[in-house]
Design goal:
Elements: E1 6-9, H1 22-38, H2 42-56, H3 59-67, H4 71-78, H5 84-87, H6 93-99, E2 104-108, H7 113-123, E3 131-133, H8 146-156, E4 163-167, H9 170-178, E5 182-186, E6 198-200, H10 206-209
Parallel strand pairs: 1-2, 1-4, 2-3, 4-5, 5-6
Amino acid sequence: MKPGRVWLFDLDNTLHNATPHIFPHINLSMRQYIEQHLGFDAHQASTIRQDYWVRYGATLLGMIRHHGTDPRHFLWETHQFPDLKRMLDFQKPVLHALRKLPGRKIIFSNAPRHYTDAILAMTGLDRCFSAIYSVENVHFQPKPMLAGFRALLRAEHLDPKRCIMVEDSLPNLISAKKLGMKTVWVSAGLRQSPFVDVKIKSVLQLPERCGRL
């Protein structure tokens, strides 16, 4: 791999498994937020949350665009975890795999900073990354919005052609590819995409596969 590459890593379902415990908790918290602050019943709130996630790639964007929701309040209220450590599903060998990758590494997550920092500290991942970009750092323009990617690239003075985006979300990788980045899709599914350079089931496979980038 060429020197000077920069790795951009998503967090949830890329570096740890958020599906069993964390995502259900966030989804419930978002539904309850919509019920309490917008006055919908549980079924309507669930439909709205899912619809915004599908349409925009992040429920947050729909809340801002259609309801004028304060993004900081929404993210704080929906990312409270009384027992986050117990809910974590993280494989420690991921730390070793990341250390074997040549080049600089940056976190690029749609999650809020307080949650991102907590996950990174609890897993030890904080020692693997030179910079952290949560949704606040890109002016609440989450992936797959190109504006969020461009905000990170400007702040870090990066050429997208030097960057490799590692993600579990295909729409986010499509945005990265449009900007000229290399893309790695972390997915156990069978689907393929012309926007993906390398597909892996786990970031544990990255060191052996990064030569293809």
